[in-house]
Amino acid sequence: MTQLLENAVSTVSALPEAEQDAVASVILSELEAEHQWDQLFQSSQDVLGLMAREANEEFRAGDTAPLDLERDFPKN
C-alpha cells in the first residue's frame, strides 16, 4: 500500500461509521466506473480504428478544415 493510500485510510478511519461508508461507496463506485470505461474502450478498438482511417482519408482528400473555435463552437 502506498503512503498516500495509508494516509487516506488512516484519515477516513477516524470518521464516524456513516461517513466511512460514504467514502467507501464513492471509492468503490469510481473503481467500478473506471473498470467499465476500460471495458468499453477495449471493446471499441475496431470502431475507433475505422474512424481513424476514415478521418485520415478525409484529411488526405482535402475534405477537412483547421479547427476554428468560433465557427466550430459558437456561443449561443
Task: Briefly say what this structure is.
The chain has 76 residues and is mainly alpha-helical. The chain has helices at residues 3-13, 17-43, 45-60, 69-72.
Q: What's the total count of β strands? A: 0
* Sheet with most strands: none
Assembly state (oligomeric): single chain
Rg is 22 Å
Element order: H for helix, E for strand: HHHH
Structure report:
With 76 residues, the chain is mostly helical. The chain has one domain (3-61). The chain contains four helices and no strands. It has helices at 3-13, 17-43, 45-60, 69-72. The radius of gyration is 22 Å and the shape is elongated. The mean pLDDT is 95.
What features would you highlight for this structure?
76 residues, 4 helices, 76% helix
Secondary structure blueprint with pairings:
Elements (H helix, E strand, L loop, with lengths): L2 H11 L3 H27 L1 H16 L8 H4 L4
